[in-house]
Amino acid sequence: MFSESTWSRKSIGDVDVVYHDGLYHLFHLVLPNHDFIAHAISDNALNWRRVDNALFIGDPGSWDDLMLWTMHVSPDPHQPGRWRMFYTGVSRRDQGKKQRLGMAVSDDLFHWQKADTNWVDERGQSDPQIVKDVRARLKSSISNNIKAKQNPESCFPLKPDSQYYESSVDSERDWVSFRDPFYFREEDQGWLLMAARVNEGPLIRRGCVGLMEEVSPNQFRALPPLHAPMMYDDIEVPNLFRIDGDYYLIGSLREDAKIRYWHTKDLEQPWQNYYDNVLLAKGNYAGRICQDEEGILLWNFYVNDPLDRTTNNLLPPPKRLAKRRNGQLRLKTFEGIEKRVTGPLNSRCLHTLKGSRDEAYFCLINSSLELISQAGFQGFVFDEEVSCFRMQCRFSMNGAGKCGILCRVDPDTHDGYYVSLDLIKGIAQYRSWKTGPEKSGEHMMQFQSLQDGFWSSADPRDIEVKLIAFGSYHELSINGNVILSLANENFSSGLLGFYVESAALHIDQLEVQHLKSPTQTDEHLTTGWATEGQETQH
């Protein structure tokens, strides 16, 4: 987990990741200012080192002189060895109300130059001649990562075509969506996707995935939307990719702050939904894919408060994306975390959390556990306290009661994380439960519902469970699919175990492993600090 420093009042925003020559290149926004696109590198997708920033807002009078928004980096299909970054910009001329798309190029992913633009600085027509002379001398004859040369033959910055999309700030909405570019290429054809809005229909249902075709190198023409479900205000940060003949479209929705996806066999055909098209639970946003040597990875930023996506955001570890036999997508734990196993926790030494009770007891049968609470709540925890771990097992339950997992629970106060698992309905809920300051009255009880997720299973009473706690990162998988993915720092270590209420829980194939703790703080992208007492080479 990595973020900007809280004291800096900055936060990581939308991300894009490229894998090249053994390095992951992370490009990300810095909120709330949006003044530049930052760049960090990693050889393992977990430890990051900030390097020189990629792009900055343009000088006053340019099309991108107010803010930079979401970007996408991909190989230049017309010049091998070169990279293109399509990015979003807004101008002071429009008070930031009209979004446009620009491009920058690089030969090494580190040094970027903005592409030529067909944009004229219209400011100061009545300026004194001495001021006009100074401004003329300041015009750039070469491009860099701030300035772009003016070229009437350029198609940049790209803007929405009124034939298909909302394009005027004089509409009821008062601002124009045309952002979050994503370049997709198949054989000798290339398209640019973006978050746009159709120009008719209910006002807050016009969000679509806009489309432009690359008709010649770096020249684009508008096409009708790739996907216009007429349900959402915007479909943010679109991604398009293909797996085994099926096309998939990923987008993020502000309505519920989740990442969703759609699928089709043919790009000329309508996009379809599965019964569950949520790819990541609430709080995970602006998903982006990248391809490395092992396949496709999904990245995103995590926000603790979905109503405020500009502060305290974090970059969690990526997820490995794969296709199920039925065509649905699934997310698996990133193997880089699995490689951090250091040794087993003794899972045969347990005790009850709430003291001895006749109606609650457990049995060890070979390698299996039988946890029983005939009435009320009882926790069953391992003797050894643990910080970072991977716990996996198989759950099967008898009875109409409840069950779940206890994580980093304090042995005295019983404060910690309580992971509720409704095996019948297929609902997982990650909760923080702790004691506030003494004599704080009703505020002594501090309960937070951190994240909910859902699954379906052919046999709901028999499931595979995996829980990972890695620094502030928490991840729950059911039957091999990531269901919950979140960040929280309320508790750093404590007891691990299970709880049962008025039921019998059978646990087998149990394996608990210690994980090597993160070697960087959550704020490492800004501070460069390693975890206390540890060093990092990255």
TrEMBL record:
| Pfam assignment, any one | Glyco_hydro_32N
Name the UniProt key words of this record, in alphabetical order.
Glycosidase, Hydrolase
An annotated Gene Ontology molecular function: beta-fructofuranosidase activity
Protein source organism: Gimesia fumaroli
Its protein name is: beta-fructofuranosidase
What biological processes does GO assign it? carbohydrate metabolic process
Q: What EC number(s) are associated with this protein in UniProt? A: 3.2.1.26
Which positions fall inside the Glycosyl hydrolase family 32 N-terminal domain?
17-123
